[in-house]
Amino acid sequence: MAFYPRLEPRLSVRYKTGEESSIKVAYTMNYQYIQLASISPTSLPTDVWIPSSDLIKPQQSQQFNLGYFFNFKKHMFEASVEVYFKDMKNLIEYREGADISDNIDDNTDNQLVVGDGNSYGIELFLKKVIGRFNGWVGYTLSYSNRVFPDINDIV
Known about the structure:
The strands form 2 sheets. The protein has a 6-stranded antiparallel β-sheet. It has a two-stranded antiparallel sheet with strand order 3-4. The chain has about 160 residues and is mainly β. The protein is built from 1 helix and 8 strands. Helix content is about 5%, strand content about 60%. The chain has one domain (about 10-150). The chain is elongated.
């Protein structure tokens, strides 16, 4: 059994650029102590939640955000544009050719490989807050990369 004490700092700063606009910057560090391991690219009943252990460290991520927020039409609309970058460590995946019904040395952790990843993107948001007709629309375009040296043959 392993013990992983961790701090999860968060920082958010807003700078008003005008009466109806602002710039926000944020940083977040998170840990996840249970991870989903899939044997295939699609979700199957064979997917297993794996807790952190002596062999499997908690997943760690650091995220950076930068956004511009503004109101217009006499505060009838709120809008924002945000970009983000997320760096991830200690991701898990089943080893190539792994057979989940076969426990190597009675420990499923031995069937897993560890890798790193990152994701980044842009988020657009528009909200109507005044009037009889209200609502919002948002759109996110993002990319995610995961690298596992034991799977991707990276030295």
